[in-house]
């Protein structure tokens, strides 16, 4: 669905589960109504101003990359065939680019990638080469009931912002 935004020397790569329906339709990351991704990046200091979803290609200039654990599908988690995901492809991308942090935007993407059913929020003990793994509460409007902004501020602390 959405092209990866990946490069060498990134501070962080955000990994969602798959493009949401609105994001796929607009061909823009985190474009759904009520998604808190872009405002949160600004609020925790990862971007100097509030970016709109249409500006997603510009995130590399701020040391940020974007990807999803399931490519080629879109919709809510209920719409996604997770059996067709290939976590090894994402692992190889991270080994190639070696960002400081791979941050999962929501527990589901981390569960699919790590092959675990129980995942705690925050910094994980698993690593990919030198890349640390962090699990964040989902910014999706559908996950508002589970929102914990504090974990996002802890992420900013790991990046020394």
Descriptive account of the structure:
This protein has 161 residues and is α/β, with parallel strands linked by helices. It has a single domain (12-158), classed as Uracil-DNA Glycosylase, subunit E (3-Layer(aba) Sandwich). 26% of the residues lie in helices and 17% in strands. The protein has five helices and five strands. The protein has a five-stranded mixed sheet.
User: Which structural class fits the helix and strand makeup?
Assistant: alpha/beta
Strand residue content: 15-25%
* Helix fraction bin: 25-40%
Low-confidence stretches: none
* Radius of gyration over all CA atoms, rounded: 14 Å
Q: Main traits of this protein?
A:
26% helix, Uracil-DNA_glycosylase-like_sf, globular, 161 residues, Uracil-DNA Glycosylase, subunit E, uracil DNA N-glycosylase activity
Quick structural overview:
The chain is α/β, with parallel strands linked by helices. Helix content is 26%, strand content 17%.
Per-chain topology:
Blueprint lengths: L11 E5 L4 H6 L10 H7 L20 E5 L18 H11 L3 E5 L1 H8 L7 E7 L2 E6 L12 H10 L3
Parallel strand pairs: 1-2, 1-3, 3-5
Antiparallel strand pairs: 4-5
